[in-house]
């Protein structure tokens, strides 16, 4: 599995940011081809360092599927909308492959 993680700092106008995110961005992301799962959380509490305001994760089965999703017209629309949201808040993002680890109790 591959995850795309997006971390948003606190926006200058949280109401405008959340309205755009919920009304525009979420529907765009949900249209990405082969998207397996999409989650978001807000108002995180930091245990170390500064908290992020909004955190989103999108999952695909493979890196190739993720790459194809963002090469699609839907993926281009999502990328362009991130630029719109970036006017409200700074954003960081990363892609990583998930490795299943056994728990300490196994």
Uncertain runs: none
In the sheet with the most strands, the strands line up as: 2-3-1-4
Strand content: 25-35%
- Care to count the β-strands? 4
Q: How many distinct domains? A: 1
What's the CATH architecture name? 2-Layer Sandwich
Please identify the top-level CATH class.
Alpha Beta
What's the mean pLDDT score? 93
* H and E order: EHEEHHE
What value does the Rg take, in angstroms? Answer: 15 Å
Q: Can you tell me the CATH topology?
A: Alpha-Beta Plaits
Q: What structural class do you assign from the helix and strand content?
A: alpha+beta
Count of runs of 4 or more consecutive helical residues: 3
Distance between the termini: 22 Å
Largest sheet: 4 strands, antiparallel
Short description:
It holds the Pfam family EthD. This protein is an alpha+beta fold and 106 residues long. The protein has helices at residues 14-30, 63-71, 73-85, and strands at residues 2-8, 37-42, 54-60, 91-97.
Report on the architecture of this protein.
The chain is an alpha+beta fold and 106 residues long. The chain has one domain (2-97): Alpha-Beta Plaits (2-Layer Sandwich). It has 3 helices and 4 strands, in the order E-H-E-E-H-H-E. The protein has helices spanning 14-30, 63-71, 73-85, and strands at residues 2-8, 37-42, 54-60, 91-97. Strands 2-3-1-4 form a 4-stranded antiparallel β-sheet. Helix 1 (14-30) runs antiparallel to helix 3. The chain is flat. The two termini are 22 Å apart. The mean pLDDT is 93.
